[in-house]
Amino acid sequence: MELKTQTEKNGTQMSEKNSTTPSSLSDVAAKRAETKVAGSAPLGTGLEARGVHAWFDKHHALADVSLDFSAGTVTALIGPSGCGKSTFIRTLNRMHEFIPNTSMAGQVLLDGKDIYEPGIDVTKIRLQIGMVFQKPNPFPSMTIGENVLSGLKLAQLKVSNQEELLEECLVRAGLWNEVKDRLGAHAGGLSGGQQQRLCIARALAVKPKVLLMDEPCSALDPGSTLRIEETISQLSKSMTIVIVTHNMQQAARVSDYTAFFLSDGGPGQMIEVGPTNEIFSRPRDERTENYVTGRFG
Amino acid sequence: MSLDAPAKPIPQAREITTKPRVSDQIFRSIVTAFSFSALIILALIALFLFIQGFSTLKEQGLGFITNFEWSVTTDEAGKEIADFGLQAMLIGTMVTSFIALFIAVPLAVLTALFLTFYAPERVKKVLVTVVDLMAAFPSILYGLWGLFILMPMAVYWAELLHKWLGWIPLFDVPQPIFTRSPFIAGLVLAVMIIPIITSVSREVFAQTPLDRVQAAYALGATKWGVIKAVVLPFGANGVVGGSMLGLGRAFGETVAVYFVLNIVFRTNFEILFTQGGNVASMIVLKFGEAGETEIGALMASGLVLFLLTLIVNFIANAVVNRTVKSGR
Amino acid sequence: MSTTQVTPTRPWAASPKDRALTASSVLLSAAITVGIVLGTPMKGKLAYFFVFLITWLIVDSLYVVRKFGAKGVRDALAAKITLYGAVVVSMAVFSILWATVSEGVAGLNLAFVTENMRNASFFDPIGKGGVLHAIIGTLELILIAIIIAVPMGILTALYLTEIKGKAAGLIQFLVQAMSGVPSVVAGLFIYAAIILNTPLRASAFLGGLALSILMIPTVTRTSQEVLNLVPRDLREAGLAMGATQWKTVALVVIPAARSGLITATILGVARIAGETAPLLFTVGVFDGYNFNPFVGGTGTLPTVIWAGLGAGTPEAAQRAWSAILILLIIVLIMFVLARTVGSRQFKKK
User: Fold this and answer.
1) Exposed, middle or buried by CB within 10 Å (0-12, 13-18, 19+), for A293?
2) What is the ipTM, given to two decimal places?
3) Single pTM value for the model
4) Which residues of C fall within a CB distance of 8 Å from A53?
5) Which CATH architecture best describes the domain C132-348?
6) Which of chain C's termini has less CB crowding within 10 Å, N or C?
7) Do the Cβ atoms of B314 and C90 come within 8 Å?
8) In sequence order, which ranges of A205-272 are alpha helices (DSSP H)?
9) CATH fold of B87-326
10) Which domains does chain A have, with CATH numbers?
């Protein structure tokens, strides 16, 4: 119950904040920096990429990205299309390898252990590093409740109190009030935004330490986008979040850190990373400045 | 629209009409006429088989389906007495076909899953060719192979089945003769229908929405977990449809069954015993020595077989089309 | 910007260590299998095979369970069992191919492909007489079926792809239904409709008619697929130049799809080349050359095989195997042709 009131309260705060049209991206980022105390969640959930490269066939898509995601922060990956940011986020939980003929180099460390180490149980990695995709993708043959708990079944985890977990996840995803009376209904009946929050709830049910979000709002209307952003802010208190976004406003609104990716015809690279308000107010690199001020991209 | 807004007249959609040129009119009517050939041929098949089989159907009535006697005799007065009943043949067709399905569906689905999710690219190419090739083998080749190669092995398997599971009525036999049994015919049919079930299943499995597959992987599922949670629920209808297409093939198969089944006009559920029924093979078997009356009965049998396979195929295609098109 | 050379790796692919483990589990399972088969009354190559499959499942599960738990075991089992399914299916195919070649070769000789059976019978020793008449007969039937079925099939496909009339859905459905017509019914139909009603008697022409019923659906469906691959803009370019639809189809669409339509024809031929049941009612028998397709029986490969099996002597069975080897070679040639011609079409696109 405590959680629920918190969500509601926070919900109103967020929408107030967003209803005032900000004059510039740096203002938004600065405003967010005031309200959010970075790293307030328990530590020890750090995810680190070390010199990550990615290839599709012979095509070198991503070169030498090293990036730390400290526990309890939200990191936004921004950049024009084709800059490798989606590829990068998919290397972080080994979803990259599902595309045929891909390869990679470098290391991704979770709690200091390389997730690409030979012989590692990759399914356990993905349990700890959850993912939400561009398009909402609930399982259509399952009910809302079954969808949330589907991860338990897939990973064959035992949970003592499923009802409790179900409610907790839906509350954290900001969906509980809307669906609590129809948990047995099929997920296809929900709106796009609701489906995406259901997918977030589904990802939360297996208790990941890190949540990767690959343009989670690009298929949604502005209202739904807002709700998802509220959810992200709420979640960032308890976990590490990495979000790929095309929308710089969104990056400014939800993230603590921003990494800017760019491809100059060759493989995509990370140009710059820093606290979000700095990236938007005084970027060190000219290319970043050009991008965040809208001169290209 | 709000009520007080000035009513804007909505223009009627104009109908766009073109008068095709003469050459096009001719072209279109020729193509259209030929496109009805499928309808006409199907109708003609039903019509002619019905005409030729009419007297049998009239004489035997419903007994044509429910009786299992098949004989033409002449009484002392020289009058012909004909008894034609398809029951044993129809039941035999079902029995062999379902044995075939029972064996073929698991193998075909496993092969389709292997091809779609497990096989390395090179193996996949070879195996797809192998399965396609299998579909191109003439049915008489299956008959020959079934008779000379498979049967000696299958008799041994049948003996084993009988030895260990003989207490189940299905695997009991009145005499220990295991050649040319419904079991062996079912095995041959199974090999024949594997390609169609495999290719339909493969087509459906390959259409499983990628986003759902990825969602399952991202939740820590193994490959098998993904198949069970996403692929099989999505593809179930397609597998059912493909199996029914296979069933339709099995119903209508003639020469392959002819060589490996001892056709006897007695309903038999002891599948290991050398006695079975099959409408299509029976037609071929009886045709050689059939007199005029019996030819009529064979035509009526052909009609029954035709309608049976048509219905199975209609349903199968409806199921497959719905699954493949909806991409659900 | 890294100037040092980084090599792409695939950490998810099997490492040498994994391969070594797999190899050791295979060897261990093989050893256990031999022990089991020798220690029990089971016998035969197939016994070894199936015992090995089961043993390997168990041994490998024991390997997997240490590291990946019950979930991993289930995954490994699924991977193996699907592989087994594919292996069993392939074994059936190779058994069929091997049987045909090994049994059929013994009866092949020059006479077998250059003579007919006019002066020989099934009971004569191998080397006397041949099946050239049946090869010619089969080719004759195929030609007749092509002449009838290909125009009908392609025109039906044109209706479905170019005209897209109101009845398209219905026609599509009927064509699918037609592909399920049992071959014996096609033969019975020709017998009922023509032989019982007209003065025409069993002949190559009637056999070709029966086969064309079976060929039309295959031709239609494949043609439809390739016609659908012809880009829309090609059609629109034709129409935009003021050409009639007829001209556009004849001069643009069909040439663009030509190799695909040839593939459709070949696939149709492969479908019917070995059909036997319909011929039993429609072509009659003849053991010499008959070049008149309308009058008199014709020998064909399927009916010769059929008769050879029915005769029941070793010589007759040998002739049947050799004849089916020739039939299989014809079907294989069609199969390879269809693939090479077909892949050319798809490469162009």
Assistant:
1) middle
2) 0.89
3) 0.87
4) 6, 8
5) Orthogonal Bundle (1.10)
6) N
7) no
8) 222-235, 248-254
9) MetI-like fold (1.10.3720)
10) 2-282 (3.40.50.300)
